[in-house]
Write a sequence for this structure.
């Protein structure tokens, strides 16, 4: 799945199509080029989406401008460090403090964050968010996006994180509760959302919580999508919980990027199918 390039010409200059790219490091496992190129093809849009592995955020923005891209996805580790190099920030990206999408508006680079809306769009297909309590495990960028979007959607997030100061900072920023990791099993909540990378490929035998703790929540979601069914989800399902992988969120955050870049309704089914096919082909379950 290595589709990334560290060269400054990571997309051919002579290509007449509109150009988009993902910037991050590493990018070898990224499914964004596959998903977005399938979406452009499905909609008959002459566009190409490439993968540009760079060493830092400044270099990513330099490459973006040099290649005259119309838009980009930003992934780890540049979601926060890219901010000072952008011309403007959308309100949600500003509040979350992280950018996963750039839109080129007549040479001005606008930063957006579609992770939060990707999460809530996906969750809505599974459960009613309004009035529900969500335990957010982790306090990084994905957790901030989750807390922001769940509050917007009428949910109540509770933050639990290994590093207490980071949990306090996140909870304080959004005015929500935080609970020490040791007390997570005593929480009464509707849904647990893992936003830590624990259990992600290749470390698929790891889990962020003991199985008896995961079993305390009627709904368990893992933002990880590789593998599709993490150890956390397998154990929660065996204990009778309803479970959901991060694949739907991944596709929905990409769909929102597509909407921002093209102004068109994204072909979500096609995007989901290519992503699922690739994950299953790689033994992703
Ligand atoms: N499905 C999707 O569309 C989607 C979108 C965005 C992100 N994600 C996934 O979400 C995950 C997190 O991304 P991020 O951007 O939030 O990363 P991040 O900013 O690095 O934050 C990671 C968080 O996980 C915690 N953590 C890391 N290792 C841990 C461990 N061994 N035990 C307990 N906690 C641990 C960290 O705790 P400390 O604060 O203690 O360091 C931190 O709070 C990644 O797996 C990413 O792929 C998925």
């Amino acid at each position: 799945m290595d589709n990334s390039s560290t060269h400054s010409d990571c997309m051919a200059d002579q290509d007449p199509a509109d150009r988009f790219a993902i910037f991050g490091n590493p990018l070898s496992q990224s499914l964004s080029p596959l998903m977005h190129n399938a979406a452009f093809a499905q909609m008959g849009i002459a566009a190409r989406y490439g993968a540009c592995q760079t060493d830092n955020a400044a270099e990513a923005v330099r490459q973006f401008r040099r290649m005259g891209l119309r838009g980009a996805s930003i992934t780890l580790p540049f979601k926060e460090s890219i901010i000072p190099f952008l011309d403007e920030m959308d309100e949600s990206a500003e509040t979350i403090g992280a950018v996963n999408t750039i839109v080129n508006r007549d040479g001005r680079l606008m930063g957006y964050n579609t992770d939060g809306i990707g999460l809530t769009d996906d969750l809505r297909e599974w459960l009613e968010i309004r009035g529900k309590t969500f335990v957010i495990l982790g306090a990084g960028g994905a957790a901030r996006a989750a807390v922001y979007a769940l509050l917007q959607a009428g949910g109540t997030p509770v933050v639990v994180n290994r590093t207490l100061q980071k949990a306090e900072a996140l909870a304080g920023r959004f005015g929500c509760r935080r609970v020490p990791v040791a007390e997570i099993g005593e929480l009464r909540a509707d849904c647990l959302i893992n936003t830590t990378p624990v259990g992600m490929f290749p470390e698929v035998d790891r889990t962020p919580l003991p199985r008896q703790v995961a079993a305390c929540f009627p709904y368990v979601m893992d933002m990880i999508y590789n593998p599709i069914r993490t150890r956390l989800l397998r154990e929660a399902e065996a204990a009778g919980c309803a479970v959901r992988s991060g694949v739907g969120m991944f596709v929905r955050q990409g769909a929102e990027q597509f909407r921002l870049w093209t102004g068109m309704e994204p072909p979500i089914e096609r995007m989901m199918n290519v992503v699922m096919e690739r994950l299953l082909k790689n033994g992703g379950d």
About this structure: Residues 76, 115, 118, 138-143, 161-163, 166, 195-198, 200, 208, 223-225, 246, 249-250, 253 surround NAP (CB under 6 Å).
